[in-house]
Amino acid sequence: MPASPIPLHTPHCIVGVIGGGQLGRMIALAARRMGIRTVIWTGGLEAPAVEVADEVIDLPFDDTVALKDFCNRITVATVEFENIPRATLEAVAASAPLHPSPRAITISQNREREKNFLRENKIPHTWFAVISSSADLAAAMKELNGPGVLKTADFGYDGKGQIKLEGTEDPEKIWAVFDAPRGVLEAWVPFEKELSVMVARGADGEMVTYDASENRHRHHILDVSIVPARISPAVALEAAAIARRVAEALGYRGILGVEFFLKSDGTLLVNETAPRPHNSGHHTLDACATSQFEQQLRAVIGLPLGSTRLLSPVVMLNLLGDFWQNETTPPNWVPLFEDGEAYLHLYGKRRAIGRRKMGHANFLAATPEAALSRAEAMKEMWLD
Ligand code: AMP
User: Fold this and answer.
1) Domains of the chain: which residue ranges?
2) Which of 19, 31, 174, 252 could be bridged to 81 by S-S, CB 3.0 to 4.6 A?
3) Strand pairing class (221-227; 213-218)
């Protein structure tokens, strides 16, 4: 048992969540079930979490009144997305316990810091160079001498702010269209699969990992996660060991997503980390003994961690806005309910625009392949 867990009895334990997106919503739902109160600080952004939170602070992250109010109302704080101003994180941490720490969050929110962290801690990653001018880019492209991808250092996710390079382009022209002051050039990885591992680290340094997810993307956005990933036991063990090393090196507390490229020779390279619940961990809601959201609450409050046991093979299908018949009309859910072992999770977003994440569905089956074929059939029907 941790030395001094925060009292769990309502209303003593109030978890403050910085950010009000779908991850915050699912944290708040888990909290409701456990009798834990939540205060959601939305940052003034659209916030699916507000419908299920106990209390809401609907003001920007740089609002000093909101900061004081948030810290006064909570026992412990956490985040549901990483792109929160560093000053806000540090100010919260100065008045309330914040898990994960501002250091861990700020490393993940910036690719330059994240890559340097991986390098310093000898965690396997792809070759990279930091770029802040066309001269830097020219030198790095020369050194790389092959295909790569130029990514913005700040605020990049789901393939945003990335330019794929063959290696023969004119660096001046690329830099002129690259819309950011700093970036990272990475070597292109000819991967066989993309994987992720969710790892949770508790108050006393205890760690648990979930089975690896095998992730497939559509238009740079996660499409399906297949669990367990179809990989060898040795690769599964190695991915879990690397995820633990990342959490340990960050001095992490909470749930952390570690994304990997798996090459055909079995080599694993860390692509990026997410200091929060992760889209590729949504299957845990229906297919694991403890969901990633409950695990996050356990870790940040200081309770013992729960079992990560996979109860059934599962495929998580992201439900993006382009599945909707129009902005306000969802797809026909009847076939999903008829499936009997498919579970719908909607985030309560009012308008379905383009590739917005509107929800997800978890398909359980005796094998990952059987779950995948049902998920794919459903997707094709909706996209038709
Ligand atoms: P990211 O935003 O870094 O997660 O990148 C989005 C997606 O682009 C990844 O999930 C990969 O499919 C692809 N990608 C990113 N970096 C690389 C790389 N260095 N080599 C190959 N594919 C990449």
Assistant:
1) 14-98, 127-187, 191-383
2) 19
3) antiparallel
Ligand 1 midpoint to CA 289 (Å):
30
Of 121, 68, 354, whose CA–CA distance to 250 is shortest?
121
Which tens digit of pLDDT belongs to each residue from 140-185? 999 999 999 999 998 655 566 899 999 999 999 999 999 899 999 9
Is 126 close to ligand 1, i.e. is its CB under 6 Å away?
Answer: yes
* Residue among 162, 191, 264, 271 to mutate when testing ligand 1 (max atoms within 8 A of CB): 271
Domain range 14-98, CATH architecture:
3-Layer(aba) Sandwich (3.40)
Tell me the CA distances in angstroms from 364 to 23, 307, 333, 357, 358, one per residue in order. Answer: 22, 19, 17, 21, 20
Which residue type sits at 350? R
CA distance 37 to 376: 38
Instruction: Give residue 224's pLDDT.
Output: 98
Supply the residue whose CA is at minimum distance from atom 8 of ligand 1: 159
CA atoms within 13 A on the CB side of 276: 28
b/e for 41-59, b at 16 or more Cβ within 10 A? bbbeeebbbbebbbbbbeb
* pTM of the model as a whole: 0.95
Superfamily of chain region 127-187? ATP-grasp fold, A domain (3.30.1490.20)
Which option is the CATH number for 191-383: 3.40.1390.10, 1.10.150.240, 3.30.470.20, 3.40.1190.20? Answer: 3.30.470.20
pLDDT band at residue 4 using 50, 70 and 90 as cut-offs: low
**In which residue are the tokens 């695990």 written?**
295
Other beta carbons within 10 angstroms of residue 176's beta carbon come to 10
Residue 195, Cβ density class (10 Å: 0-12 exposed, 13-18 middle, ≥19 buried): buried
Neighbouring CB atoms inside 10 A of 84's CB total 20
